[in-house]
Design brief:
It is built from five helices and eight strands; from the N terminus they run αββαββααββββα. The chain is of the alpha+beta class. The strands form two sheets. Strands 1-2-8-7-6-5 form a six-stranded mixed sheet, with helices on both faces. A two-stranded antiparallel ribbon has the order 3-4.
């Protein structure tokens, strides 16, 4: 999964801001969910020819579980809290998935977490990570978030570099 293409001034989608909804969190939350719904429930997207879906069950408050993973933070599933920075970027996951294989600013690699193989898509300019989980016939959007610390970014770039080195070693 190399990135040999030339970046053609990629422009990320506009942020969805709480201020655009007069600070009304309920209206804002609905708008954020509608964006998620349009991108991952009502549309079909794919990554490198494989369909990407969003996990619905178990639902959280009647909404897709994946929605909470890309818009909320916290380690304990039933105690996750809204994260405005994640919510503002609700349009980013689809955009990253659709552009990762054709734009040089993305770093794409695979890793293992437990029994799962994950596909990591990282925007070096936006410092934004999208994680997919491979399934036999599709990819599952797992989570997405801003990478806020230099330490975390360094760790991700080492993981990417190690992955690329392992691919190169296999082809040598």
């Amino acid at each position: 999964m190399s990135n040999n293409s030339i970046n053609t001034n990629l422009v990320f989608p506009d942020l969805l801001l709480l201020n655009d909804y007069g600070g009304n969190f309920e209206n804002y939350f609905s708008a954020v969910y509608k964006c998620f719904e349009n991108d991952f429930i009502r549309s079909e997207i794919s990554f490198m020819g494989i369909v990407v879906t969003a996990q619905k069950h178990p639902e959280v408050d009647g909404l897709h579980r994946t929605f909470y993973h890309i818009t909320h933070e916290g380690d304990t599933e039933d105690e996750r809290t809204p994260d405005i920075r994640r919510m503002e970027r609700v349009r980013y996951p689809k955009f990253c998935i659709e552009n990762a294989s054709i734009q040089s600013e993305f770093r794409v690699w695979k890793n293992s977490r437990g029994r799962d193989t994950r596909i990591c898509i990282y925007s070096t300019t936006e410092k934004y990570l999208v994680v997919l989980t491979e399934r036999p016939r599709y990819n599952l959007l797992w989570t997405a978030y801003c990478v806020d610390s230099a330490h975390r970014e360094k760790k991700l770039m080492k993981e990417w570099s190690d992955y690329i080195a392992s691919l190169n070693a296999k082809t040598a």
